[in-house]
Design goal:
The protein is built from 16 helices and 13 strands. It is an alpha/beta fold. α10 (about 260-275) links the parallel β10 (about 250-255) and β11 (about 285-290). α3 crosses α13 and α5 (about 145-160) runs parallel beside α6. It starts with 6 loop residues before the first strand and ends with a helix. It binds pyridoxal-5'-phosphate and zinc ion.
Length: about 425
């Protein structure tokens, strides 16, 4: 098996142990469990050789606009191993009307709800499928009720690799439908999510399946970092490349947080660019959690290394997490970037859905809308200022959770009006 050409290895964020690039896609032996205190491994890259070999202008000019353009920075040995279902780019839009409504002069929306399976998770699942192919694994597997499983089923279908998904018996039928549609084999486990997770771990170990589980597989945040690489390219292009540089970083960036893998990946993308000298400064990264699922925000405020589990019950199901599995990467992202955690009420999350759509053109599921609720709270609290360049990432499409959209509309007093099929009735209803 050939190895990713610029990956030097993986370092444990708990004990500092170093693993070669061909180490198993698993946590460090110091803490092989997968809870909040897992032996999380962080990929390390040969930035000196990358800088000498890769021209950022070539990446910017690549005729393939998907994440394939970043392949030297991805844990794959060949670009062609990525599934053919293009992951990215997703739009980065200067959201003038939404920004004006909130008093933000330079607000940008990055809509990852527009990836193939309708959430940011495709960025990680494409890497999982590519690595599974490189390792000759017969099956890719994950335990998840939500977007990670949908993304894995989608990317696996694109290359004809069998996907096996373990969900708790109580998983919502609509979410399971997306998995089944893409041909995944789904096991509804009699037990909790943790039981499903444990069975998936055991099955992968016993049968040699490729394990995509968040917090277990160290390469998932490397896939998710492409959201930062991509938006930095787009931001430079939107600003007309005044400085001539192909990449540009915003001042601040907002993203919602559950397990912490996405925010960890967002940080890693900008860290790569900074190490390569392709951006001048690290943006401040703000992680947004619901008050009803705030384990990482609590740990950040307490200065803790590891979060204390909570009993999460937020309506935003994609960020409802008791014991975050990628805590170390999440806390590093916030601390090392000089950002903060912001917590918002579920009510503010649902209220953020309508302005995002009406003024920003983005249809977000609650976990995605949380990021916009958090940006507004941060402006109120003085964490960001009105003139700063701010990027808000929508992590999932509103079509993932239509009942939440219906709830937001109903709370706004909206609803279809019943009328007779005549112009007179329409005139009366419009009062014209
Ligand atoms: C998975 C997910 C998140 C949270 O990502 P973590 O890596 O668990 O922090 C946020 N929003 C959406 C839509 C997601 O699917
Ligand atoms: Zn370790």
């Amino acid at each position: 098996m050939t190895l990713p050409p610029f990956l030097t290895g993986l370092r444990c964020m708990c004990c500092g142990a170093f693993y070669p690039p061909n180490a198993p896609d698993a946590p460090c032996a110091c803490r092989p469990n997968t809870g909040s205190d897992a032996g999380t491994l962080d990929a390390e890259w040969d930035y000196t050789r990358l800088r000498a070999t890769i021209d950022p202008a070539t990446i910017a000019a690549d005729p393939d606009p998907s994440i394939g353009r970043f392949w030297p920075l991805l844990p794959i040995s060949e670009r062609a191993h990525l599934p053919p279902l293009a992951v990215g780019p997703t739009p980065l839009t200067h959201a003038r009307r939404l920004g004006d409504s909130a008093g933000m002069a330079a607000l940008y929306l990055k809509d990852d709800g527009r990836l193939p399976s309708a959430s940011l998770k495709d960025r990680a699942s494409a890497i999982a499928v590519a690595r599974a192919i490189e390792q000759g694994a017969p099956v890719v597997a994950a335990a998840s009720t939500g977007n990670a499983a949908a993304a894995l089923a989608t990317q696996a279908a694109a290359v004809g690799l069998p996907a096996i998904i373990f969900v708790p018996k109580t998983a919502p039928a609509a979410k399971v439908a997306q998995l089944l549609t893409f041909g995944a084999t789904v096991f509804a486990v009699e037990g909790s999510y943790d039981d499903a997770f444990d069975l998936c771990q055991e099955a992968c170990r016993s049968f040699g399946w490729y394990n995509r589980n968040t917090g277990y597989n160290p390469h998932m945040s490397e896939g998710k970092k492409t959201v930062s690489l991509e938006l930095a390219l787009q931001l430079a292009a939107l600003r007309g490349r005044a400085s001539g540089a192909p990449f540009a970083a915003p001042d601040a960036l907002f993203v919602s947080v559950g397990d912490g893998c996405i925010v960890g990946g967002v940080y890693k993308g900008f860290y790569d660019l900074l190490q390569l000298g392709w951006i001048a400064q690290m943006p401040r990264i703000y992680g947004v959690q619901s008050t009803l699922s705030a384990a990482l925000a609590d740990a950040w405020r307490a200065g803790a290394k590891v979060p204390t589990p909570v009993n999460a019950r937020t309506r935003a199901d994609s960020i409802s997490v008791d014991a975050p599995r990628d805590a170390r990467k999440a806390l590093r992202a916030i601390r090392a970037s000089g950002g903060a955690f912001v917590v918002v009420e579920d009510e503010a999350i649902l209220q953020a859905i309508l302005p995002l759509a009406r003024l920003g053109g983005v249809f977000a599921e609650p976990a995605g809308a949380a990021a916009w609720a958090g940006a507004q709270a941060a402006l109120r609290d003085g964490l960001i200022s009105a003139g700063e360049t701010v990027v808000v990432i929508n992590t999932g499409s509103g079509l993932k959770d239509v009942p939440a959209a219906m709830q937001a509309v109903a709370a706004d007093g909206g609803g279809a009006q019943l009328i007779a099929p005549t112009l007179d009735a329409l005139r009366a209803a419009l009062k014209i």
